[in-house]
Amino acid sequence: MQTKVFLKESEIPKKWYNIAADLPSPLQPPLGPDGKPVSPDMLAPVFPMNLIEQEVSQERWIDIPEGVLEILYRWRPSPLHRAHHLEKALGTPARIYYKNESVSPAGSHKPNTAVAQAWYNKQFGIKKLATETGAGQWGSALAFACSLIGLECKVFMVRISFEQKPMRKVMMQTWGATCIPSPSPETKAGRDVLEKHPDTPGSLGIAISEAVEAAVTDPTGQTRYSLGSVLNHVLLHQTIIGLEAKKQLKKIGEKKVDIVIGCAGGGSNFAGLSFPFANDKIHGAAIDIIPVEPASCPTLTKGPFIYDHGDIAKMTPLLPMHSLGHSFVPDSIHAGGLRYHGMAPLVSQGVVEGLFRPMAIQQNECFRAALLFAKTEGIIIAPETSHAVAVVIRKAKEAKEEGKEKVIIFNLSGHGLMDLNGYDAFLHGRLVDHELHQDEVDAALCELKGLPLPTVNRTGKW
Amino acid sequence: MQTKVFLKESEIPKKWYNIAADLPSPLQPPLGPDGKPVSPDMLAPVFPMNLIEQEVSQERWIDIPEGVLEILYRWRPSPLHRAHHLEKALGTPARIYYKNESVSPAGSHKPNTAVAQAWYNKQFGIKKLATETGAGQWGSALAFACSLIGLECKVFMVRISFEQKPMRKVMMQTWGATCIPSPSPETKAGRDVLEKHPDTPGSLGIAISEAVEAAVTDPTGQTRYSLGSVLNHVLLHQTIIGLEAKKQLKKIGEKKVDIVIGCAGGGSNFAGLSFPFANDKIHGAAIDIIPVEPASCPTLTKGPFIYDHGDIAKMTPLLPMHSLGHSFVPDSIHAGGLRYHGMAPLVSQGVVEGLFRPMAIQQNECFRAALLFAKTEGIIIAPETSHAVAVVIRKAKEAKEEGKEKVIIFNLSGHGLMDLNGYDAFLHGRLVDHELHQDEVDAALCELKGLPLPTVNRTGKW
After folding, report:
1. Looking at the complex, does the CB of residue B61 fall below 8 Å from at least one CB of chain A?
2. pLDDT per position as a tens digit, A319-364
3. In angstroms, what separates the C-alpha of B74 from chain A's closest C-alpha?
4. Which residues pair with A224 in a beta bridge?
5. Beta strand residue intervals within A266-397, DSSP E
6. Burial grade of B279 (CB within 10 A; 0-12, 13-18, 19 or more)
7. How far apart are CA B344 and CA B319, in angstroms?
8. Is the Cβ pair A170, B421 closer than 8 Å?
9. Which of B73, B174, B423 sits opposite A423 (nearest CB)?
10. How far apart are CA B348 and CA B99, in angstroms?
């Protein structure tokens, strides 16, 4: 009874898959404040040109540089596991597989793109990266990557998280990064907020503004900004997950996958596993592909597909995406990585076109799923990942009712060893469910009136 | 440039290696309070008979049950890594390898024996295990194993750790275990201490006494005690580490190992990697095998080889081991897993016989090594593991000076994500070194006068 499948280093995928080449409608460009498309040159102060080229590329397959692979080899190819014991506990005829991204040194899938981004910046002659982090997973991953590649790294961490999760800061410092609470007096954006609200807990929106400002105002011109999700090139770098998984399923003798599941905050881990399977779906395979979001931040299930800003301070261009409005502040659930008002344009458009079928779940169901997973499969998963597992369990139960041998695969995006306070709250009955209702969504969206609408074929053929 | 070597599940070792069969002098038996050898029957209230049989076995190879392997497969065989980037940073001609035990769901090597012990207890009809834990690694590992195998688990956690590391408790609770601070009012041993010292921070010695009492006083007779290191059967279960490593070194083309290194607290992770290599040494191979301990708890380098108790309350039999005296309280270094007054009898005797050559290291050198490791190899290691890495770095530098292509392997016994406060202290210059001097050792040993001495050939031939 085989439990997991490894690939040799020589079997690692050598190219990333760019789904932009295969979507039925062309991807809509980001827009500037004037409503006109943002050109690559306009992004040059923020990102290095080699990553901007990836961001707008229409090439279906993009080579993974050898220098990136050499770092990914430290933990990749990651194992694919068969969840025998979860299946047994559920009494399901479904065969459940998971891709274990928790084995990376930073504990999640985030280093897949952190390493690539740091490498491209280094190639371009950049000396330092600035970024923001909420709960800390992304900041840790970028600190890790910069350490190995030889770049300075500065992380603006949302102040409330900075204070509540001091160990995340220590992780980043151990890898040599600087981590400061946001808002900070170091940027104009930060000072403006501190002047008005000296006691603010901070927000991802403010931290993004500070990190972008830190990058573009460096007088040496050698600092750039780095983002951990949402953008096309970030999702591209994560497709190594799904590409490995397909090879591993083949090795273990699975010919056909029925259901692909990933949690979705900005969209990167979901995209990483699912885009290579979406390629099969585009070419005719019947696959149910499900991004799972929190009911308290139902971007894909209740937000419209519109042009919106990526941050509260409107420092970013307008992106074509599902959004709850750039000033929407989600409920304080424990899955901090899923608390984002927007969603990756590539995932958003895939939903509009019918490739993906999103679901929203309450956090108590998620932690119940996480506890069952820990007690059967043994891994304590991140609160974000628990959203995927909750839907896996629903689908496995459906397969039992239908008596069908469904093949289900999900992305175990990270472990929860740095997030045990969420488990503590659940075990002691302190977790509160919250579902965002449509009228609240409509209210949040009022501010977006007058912004342009993307033009995408909304009648998906799948 | 290959970075790591996996084995297939089918290549996992099917037998453990029992070094007791190969030591030049026979292993000395544990003694009772009367100075007479303890018979297996006398241990029956504490351990199940199938584990007692392993404890006293002289068989060289012992089958790993299929039921144990099926659980180990969740993360084993563990990867063997080549530390290319550490080598490069050191400019050494040495080739450095490490066995990565941090990939287990509990984050360390401890589940290797936790799973085996839980499985044998289950086979013997036991319903519940009681144990103690200091920093929490062992308690987490046993909670994990009991959850998967279907046993109740109760962990007495040293009170100061229970309060300082609340997330370790949450890990255990997530896996369904009960974790209470020790001393507790639940046992006579605990009540006695609380009566005299209501504000005591607790100690491993007290916690062991409580766990043993909880096991032997269960009126149903269905509870047993479980220990995470020191005993012969515990070390036996860890030898899967070294047996896998030898297969992996062969796969990568290494014919000969020069230096084997592991940190040593009770001795189990050191033994797990090194005993299979010690077998080669016994048969003539020239290998330097180094257990590394903290300078503040120099059991092997400064303690004598004597008969001593395993706990302060003298609940355990007398064991033949290197010891600093059963009431010695080591300095509060961050490597909590290395703060033990004694050492596994098998490791102790191997030192006396010249098989192993122990070293003691200060904690600032260890954390400097850990930081270099994090910045080059990317993994944040446990403070315990940093002791091994500090000696790896010394040996790699010696190889550079000598211009020799030495092959070095060490055991990466666990990650440090639950122990980041140690890194925090180091990064902020708050770590204090402390070396225990011989006169302090001699004073601590006064209490042992009159205890019997083991009879072992002290003139090793290696």
Report:
1. no
2. 999 999 988 878 877 888 898 899 999 999 999 999 999 999 999 9
3. 6
4. A129
5. 288-294, 305-309, 318-322, 359-361
6. buried
7. 9
8. yes
9. B174
10. 23
Q: How many whole angstroms separate alpha carbon B210 and alpha carbon B57?
A: 28
Q: How do A152-158 and A80-82 pair as beta strands?
A: unpaired
Which positions in chain A touch B147 (Cβ < 8 Å)? 374-375, 378
State the burial class of residue B180 (Cβ atoms within 10 Å of its Cβ: 0-12, 13-18, 19+): middle
Which residues of chain A make contact with B144, given a CB cutoff of 8 A? 378
Which residues in A lie closer than 8 A to residue B1 (C-beta atoms)? 70
Q: Report yes or no: A343 and A300 within 8 Å, Cβ to Cβ.
A: yes
> Distance (Å, rounded) from C-alpha A278 to C-alpha A60?
13
Residues 6 or more apart from B253 whose CB is under 8 A from it?
Answer: none
pLDDT per position as a tens digit, B178-216:
999 999 999 999 999 999 999 988 888 889 989 999 999
* Contact status of B1 with chain A (Cβ, < 8 Å): yes
Residue A97 bridge partners (DSSP): A82, A409
Determine contact: B88 vs chain A, CB below 8 A: no
ipTM of the complex: 0.94
Q: Which of residues 347-366 of A touch B (CB under 8 A)?
A: none
**Would you state the pLDDT for residue A462?**
59
Query: Which residues are within 8 A (CB) of B271 and not within 5 positions of it... i.e. 6 or more apart?
Result: B19, B235, B238, B239, B262, B344, B346, B347
Q: Phi, psi (5° rounding) for residue B364?
A: -65, -40
Give the one of B81, B103, B380 whose C-beta lies nearest to A171's C-beta. B380
Per-residue pLDDT tens digits for B262-276: 999 999 999 999 999
3-state SS of A365-433 is HHHHHHHHHHHHCCCCECHHHHHHHHHHHHHHHHHHHHCCCCEEEEEECEECCCCHHHHHHHHCCCCCC
Length of chain B: 462
Question: Which tokens in the block code for residue A232?
Answer: 């096309």
Domains detected in chain B: 4-9+63-107+233-447 (3.40.50.1100)
Residue of B nearest to A2 (CA): B9
- Token reading at A19: 């789904």
> How far apart are alpha carbons B163 and A248 in whole angstroms?
44
The encoded tokens of residue A176 equal: 């040599």
User: What's the distance, Cα to Cα, between the start and end of chain B in Å?
Assistant: 35
Q: For residue A283, what is the DSSP state?
A: T
Report d(CA B294, CA B433) in Å as an integer: 10
Q: Do A378 and B105 touch (CB under 8 A)?
A: yes
Q: Indicate left, alpha or beta for A363 from its phi (over 0: left) and psi (-120 to 50: alpha).
A: alpha
CA dist B330 and B134 (Å) reads 13
- A123-148 pLDDT, tens digit per residue, is 999 999 999 998 899 999 999 999 99
Mark yes or no for CB contact B417/A421 under 8 Å: no
CB A2 within 8 A of CB B9: yes
The pLDDT tens digits along chain A (462 residues) read 788 999 999 999 999 999 999 998 888 899 998 889 999 999 999 999 999 999 999 999 999 999 999 999 999 999 999 999 999 999 999 999 999 999 999 999 999 999 999 999 999 999 999 999 988 999 999 999 999 999 999 999 999 889 888 999 999 999 999 999 999 999 999 999 999 999 988 888 889 999 999 999 999 999 999 999 999 999 999 999 999 999 999 999 999 999 999 999 999 999 999 999 999 999 999 999 999 999 999 999 999 999 999 887 788 899 999 999 988 878 877 888 898 899 999 999 999 999 999 999 999 999 999 999 999 999 999 999 999 999 999 999 999 999 999 999 999 999 999 999 999 999 999 999 989 998 888 887 877 777 778 877 665 565
